[in-house]
Give the backbone structure.
Amino acid sequence: MSELRTERLVLRLWRDSDREPWAAMNADPEVRKYLGGPQTREQSDAALAGMRADFHERGFGWWALEARETGRFIGRVGLDVVGPDMPFAGVDIGWRLTRSAWGHGYATEAALACLAFGFETLGLPEVLASTTVENLRSQAVMRRIGMTRDPADDFEDPSVPEGPLRPCVLYRISRTSAHGLRTASPGRS
């Protein structure tokens, strides 16, 4: 399935026209505050190519996020397989929005659509989410979508150098605890 729709959002495959706003978002130090700092255009282009390839290969991954009313690119949201270097395994949910899209509930709305897709379409038994201990905004989204945290699962991210971004929290939600989640309508495939 290439597209999901919510009341205000479209989660869709990436377009070439997304390169500029994606790169601008990744160059914003506030957007990348908990992700190791701004990215160069080359890094941003490589990430976009990787997301396209992963989606094509697996049938899920990171969608471009668009505001339905304006058609404007406002970020990314999706599901990804946890990397082998992490101290846990499974499928991870995440989001990253342009600063102008913060504070409107878009991350929560988009994440609920991703959870519904993961549980109903992919049949996942559980979805995970992780972020730095300091990223309180993302942790609030995790709680709003029904995820819970057990401090015993918290970890040090081995891919991050020593410092404030290394300590992380892990949230979880199971298919059974998410029963009744349905905020997305499938778009055209």
User: Anything to note?
Assistant: Strands lie at 4-5, 9-12, 62-67, 73-81, 91-97, 126-132, 148-149, 155-156, 167-174, 185-186.
